[in-house]
Amino acid sequence: MNRIHIVGIGFKPLEKEVEELLLRLSVIFCFSGTLKIFEKYAIYSRVKSKLKVCRGVSQLIEELKDVLKYTSAGVLASGDPLYFGIAEKIIKTFGREKVRIYPDLSSLQKACALIGENWTEFFSLSLHGRAFEKEEFFQQLVIHKKLALLTDAKNTPAKIAEELFKSSFKDVEMWVCEKLGTEEERIFHGTPESFKNKKFSVPNIVLLLLRNKEKISFGLKEEEIFHQGGMITKDEIRAVVIHRLRLPETGVLWDIGAGSGSVGLECAKIFPRLFVFSVEKNRSLCQLLQKNKEFLKTFNLKVVEGEAPAILKELPDPHRVFVGGSGGKLREILHYLITLKTLKVLVLTAVSPDTLFKSLNILENAGFYTEVSQISVNRLQKAGSKRIFKALNPVFVVQAERKSDF
Fold this sequence. Notes:
With 406 residues, this protein is an alpha/beta fold. The chain folds into three domains: 4-105, Tetrapyrrole methylase, N-terminal domain (Cobalt-precorrin-4 Transmethylase, domain 1, 3-Layer(aba) Sandwich), CATH 3.40.1010; 109-210, Methyltransferase, Cobalt-precorrin-4 Transmethylase, Domain 2; 222-402, Vaccinia Virus protein VP39 (Rossmann fold). The protein has helices at residues 16-24, 32-38, 44-47, 57-67, 86-94, 107-115, 134-144, 157-166, 192-195, 235-245, 262-270, 283-296, 330-337, 353-365; strands at 4-9, 28-30, 51-53, 73-78, 99-102, 123-126, 146-150, 172-178, 186-190, 204-210, 251-256, 274-280, 301-305, 320-323, 345-350, 368-375, 378-383, 386-391, 395-402. The chain has a seven-stranded mixed sheet, sandwiched between helices. A five-stranded parallel sheet has the order 3-2-4-1-5, with helices on both faces. A hairpin with a 2-residue loop joins β17 (378-383) and β18. α13 (330-337) packs parallel to α14. The chain is elongated and about 90 Å long.
């Protein structure tokens, strides 16, 4: 069988068997950048007549298709060809059985060795030739704490640094590693602020390390969440609601009538891979919710301005739903929610018995198993020289579970 042999170069000498392979092959493809690297290898003079430089990936694939009809071919790639390299495209096109890979070090391994960090702890993202999805990037940083970023001419280290600086990621260390494996190799270390206006040579790889202080995922206080006039799900109620939601680590949560967003925000912090959609019809509250999202760095939460149930049809189907407010449309909202087959657990809060029994009738008639708790909270406060307990308004917490296996 004619095969494609992909050889990684750039950091370490070629193994004897790889040199012998290159000498046997009749044609070896490469790109112009890879050729410059390969010219420094001792074997270059012996195989340069076989080298064919391709202008891009499409030309390489077409050339390989032609050559494979009569012989095997080589492809030179930088570093580890499977680390966001050409190998993935070639395997997808020709199949695994026709491809052999001889890797060098990856740029991540080399960069981490230079700065003294464990490369296995870094989560890699490629921004090369891709749109920069800011919130997705921020959320990956929040989740993993250590990111390795492959850049390009548009998504530069300076752009990354500027976005981090604008979003108040003050505890981020940043390394930019230029032209690894060449005589022009350089390492820069600093903060996003120090790099946001600086130009760097290509190619480069960016390493980010988020050094968080104590991180609170569960137990946010009311005063840590921006809200208006005390209109917020109180801490004790929020704790019960989140417990009743029985949240999965991944999936979709709808927070309907989100207000300032305390429930959705805390759920998003607890499970950063959970997608939270906070639905609120009041524009000023949506703006407040967006402020909370950015302040708490819950980029897995999306603020949705609109009125339920109409706006809900535009969202991904949920696995969990919390209804904190209904704007007088509780009946319509519940009748829509019970039709959603993905919905396993629904939790709502009510302050009046009328709202409680109205919701129970709808949910139980739809085949949901319900449990109700009335939460009465008394907080100790100072009253002059004495201390007294002051009662908060009691709240009914309704949990509805679909009668099926999870």
